[in-house]
Design goal:
Protein name: diguanylate cyclase
Number of helices: 10
Shape: elongated
Catalytic activity: 2 GTP = 3',3'-c-di-GMP + 2 diphosphate
Keywords: Phosphoprotein
Number of strands: 10
InterPro entries: CheY-like_superfamily (IPR011006), Diguanylate_Cyclase (IPR050469), GGDEF_dom (IPR000160), Nucleotide_cyclase (IPR029787), Rev_trsase/Diguanyl_cyclase (IPR043128), Sig_transdc_resp-reg_receiver (IPR001789)
Strand order of the largest sheet: 2-1-3-4-5
Bound molecules: guanosine-5'-triphosphate
EC number: 2.7.7.65
Oligomer: single chain
Distance between the termini: 57 Å
Strand content: 15-25%
Structural class: alpha/beta
Helix content: 40-55%
């Protein structure tokens, strides 16, 4: 049977582990651990969907593991249900404050454990979906501006700390207003989807990140770039979209859809904040639209 989720059971009592395993084994993949250290090692290797955690363990406090999980980027969104012998309100309150989603006291009814696990897995699935949707552009299904901002912020900070170059490209489809006027808005949407997919495919080959910036503009972030590498990437992007051969009957410069690219290469001066590159890239993009190469680069 295809089990729907992976559950980690952490309890130092072998009998408790066995009971929980037998309760949930039919519906889920169960991994059992007798200590917090073992559990941490499992969490670093496996994708866990939910944790059932005992807090009063002889060999280390479950509270510590709970706190670690909730402050770690890789595990903070895993729901943790406490299964405890302690009926103390303080322990229950502490566990919930530290981020546990539920608190079940022993002895428990297997049916209730099953029901609570099911509820929290359903909520997690919905939260995961919302998280994904919040970062995906509805039309092109590539990352959206929110995802770009999150990603750029992390990569910019890393670049500043390591003093390694960071490149930002702003890409626009040429004469898109005329394209919509000539071919219709629906076809315009279809064209945006094709271009976005092609850009994503090409940028992936260069190990970069692409997002829809706004309307007909896309943004690309590339780390550890040199000028020649960046030129190679932008040529590949121009070529990839040319090769789609999407007819553009109203373009004064090409029979097919084409791009202009404004680039910023941060080498020495990274600016005060990540979004400083937007303005620089926007000016470069404006100039790119007027030159034959359709690419303009600002180096800082
Ligand atoms: N079909 C479609 N069109 C869009 C979408 N978002 C923005 N647009 C249109 O894209 C056009 C963008 O035009 P502009 O950026 O003003 O300019 P342009 O025609 O590309 O001209 P140049 O910048 O000189 O190349 C506008 O007409 C917008 O209405 C979208 O999601 N779908």
């Amino acid at each position: 049977m295809n089990k729907s989720a992976q559950i980690l059971v952490v309890d130092d009592d072998p009998l408790n582990r066995l009971v929980l395993e037998n309760t949930l084994n039919d519906d889920y993949d169960i991994v059992v651990c007798g200590s917090c250290e073992e559990a941490q090692s499992v969490l670093s290797k496996k994708n866990v969907d939910l944790i059932l955690l005992d807090i009063l363990m002889g060999n280390g406090s479950g509270f510590e593991l709970l706190e670690k999980c909730k402050t770690c980027i890789h595990s903070y969104n895993i729901p943790i249900i406490i299964v405890s012998q302690s009926h103390s309100f303080q322990d229950e309150a502490k566990a919930l404050e530290l981020g546990a989603v539920d608190y079940v006291t022993k002895p428990y009814s297997p049916a209730i454990i099953k029901a609570r696990v099911k509820i929290h897995l359903t909520i997690k699935k919905k939260n995961d979906l919302l998280g994904r949707l919040a970062n995906i552009d509805g039309l092109t299904e590539i990352p959206n501006r929110r995802a770009l901002e999150e990603n750029l912020s992390v990569l910019w900070q890393q670049a500043v700390q390591s003093q390694q170059a960071l490149a930002f490209l702003l890409i626009s489809i040429d004469y898109f207003k005329s394209y919509n006027d000539k071919h219709g808005y629906a076809q315009g949407d279809g064209c945006l989807v094709k271009v976005a997919n092609q850009l994503e495919h090409t940028v992936n080959e260069f190990g970069g990140f692409v997002a829809r910036f706004d309307g007909v503009r896309f943004a690309v972030v590339l780390t550890k770039q040199s000028e020649p590498q960046l030129m190679q990437c932008t040529s590949a992007l121009h070529l990839a979209v040319e090769q789609l051969e999407i007819p553009h009957q109203a373009s004064p410069i090409s029979a097919f859809i084409s791009l202009s690219i404004g680039g910023v290469l941060l080498k020495d001066h990274f600016g005060d904040k990540p979004s400083d590159v937007y303005e620089l890239a926007d000016s470069a993009l404006l100039k790119a639209g007027q030159v034959q190469s359709k690419f303009e680069l600002v180096v800082r």
